Amino acid sequence: MPKPPPSLTLAPPTAADEADWRLLWDGYCRFYKVDLAAEVTAGTWARLLDPACPIHGLIARDGDRALGFVNYVIHANTWSLAPVCYLEDLFTAPEARGRGVGRALIGRLGDLARAEGWRHVYWHTHDDNATARALYDSVTGGRDSFVRYVLRP
What is the pTM of this model? Predict the structure, then answer.
């Protein structure tokens, strides 16, 4: 299993991280072949910086280089009194893949879950995203049996 660079840091985004986050976000959107309106990206960034919003993030850096990010949502649920964490977006820059960055970001969410008393962290990915699924299988022991449906108004 790859270990992240020893100089890798993971920290919540600050206003100074906007340009780096946007470069990574653009790469993430290209990967998933989505073209989001500029106001959606701006709104997502603003929510990441808003301490009153349940959307949070972490940026992985090796020195001054931003290598990846995770955006996640903490929310209540009906099966527990403890909140749960939805890992909504995870992205590692192509040049940093295979270096343990994604694993470190997921690991930090696991650490936060234990420290904050979250019931669990959950996420989904495209069925054909074999690289990501291999990572996810290795950190979770495999997927659960739920199937995702989407109702679009």
Answer: 0.92
